[in-house]
């Protein structure tokens, strides 16, 4: 067996100047821009400083509900009885869906009340209906935060209403937003709806528009969540999808609503226009076929266990290279999922990522007669 290297791709790109991450003129105190597919951070400003996430908290509230829906522990048509605590929030001047005391509201309507009109009353009603108390539901939120790697976040309520123990960072909110979009695509559709009509009991229907101002601009934005607290001013977690590319931007500490809109658009456009995202390999999609020695098949397809994307700046030509390395030919038997090589990705001739290559199939040894013939052939001709 010998070490074999296969050069599988050369991707010509346009790279930016040495100072890749130029400053962006936005009045947000904290900001981050991240590519969705590669996860690469394209711009950041005080991204790990603690902030009060305000209504961006509701992203995690809905993630927990989506988890329960996927597990079959609730369903969209399940009806929740509105408590006095939830009802009082609809009377206190906060963003509300305007639910009525003792009314029965479906999980789906409460989700829309949270996502589209940022209803604090809907948050409490849904939390109490699914967990018994808001406090128990918040425990689920914090458990989920730990699970998905939010390292500087703690939730103290479901709505983001003032509480010093309800804190996060724009980096964690970007991570949370990416998780939402990736893991619940069917439910994420709610985030792009621009209006919600609540056909309430005992009164005329109430129609409210989505609080996210970027949804109305026809620029590829399909989410996510606004926020406002007096101490933190205006915030927004937003995302833009153009073609196959998606970027996520989170800004907090905007001084006005208008600067929040302008600044968020600037952050999103920066991520889309200044960078390219390149697909190197997709999870469970064959990358190559490698030679097999003494097997019932002469080739084995190899795959990677995760999607591999790279995001690089534009404007100066350079090369990404992906090279397969393995000791070959690979001796049978081979089990599906067995590590049989490496995919090494180089950026600017520097090894940037090393990924295991896995067999995509079981390959049994050939019978004794076939193995004998192949061995003789190899001794005579050196051909496997």
Brief characterization of the structure:
Helix content is 27%, strand content 32%. It is α+β, with helices and mostly antiparallel strands and 384 residues long.
Characterise this structure:
By secondary structure, this protein is an alpha+beta fold. The strands form 5 sheets. The chain has a 7-stranded mixed beta sheet with strand order 1-15-17-18-13-12-16, with no helix packed on it. A 5-stranded antiparallel beta sheet has the order 3-2-10-9-8, sandwiched between helices. Strands 4-5 form a two-stranded antiparallel ribbon. It folds into 2 domains: 114 residues, Peptidoglycan synthesis regulatory factor (PBP3), Domain 2; 252 residues, DD-peptidase/beta-lactamase superfamily (Beta-lactamase). α1 crosses α5, α3 packs antiparallel against α4 and α4 packs across α5. The chain is built from 9 helices and 18 strands. Helices cover 27% and strands 32% of the residues.
List the helices and strands and how they pair.
Elements: E1 2-14, E2 30-35, E3 41-45, H1 58-70, E4 79-81, H2 84-89, E5 104-106, H3 107-115, H4 120-131, H5 134-147, H6 170-183, H7 185-188, E6 195-198, E7 206-209, E8 221-229, E9 233-242, E10 245-254, H8 257-273, E11 275-281, E12 288-293, E13 299-303, E14 308-313, E15 317-328, E16 330-331, E17 339-347, E18 350-359, H9 368-381
Parallel strand pairs: 12-16
Antiparallel strand pairs: 1-15, 2-3, 2-10, 4-5, 6-7, 8-9, 9-10, 11-14, 12-13, 13-18, 15-17, 17-18
Helix pairs in contact: 1-5, 3-4, 4-5
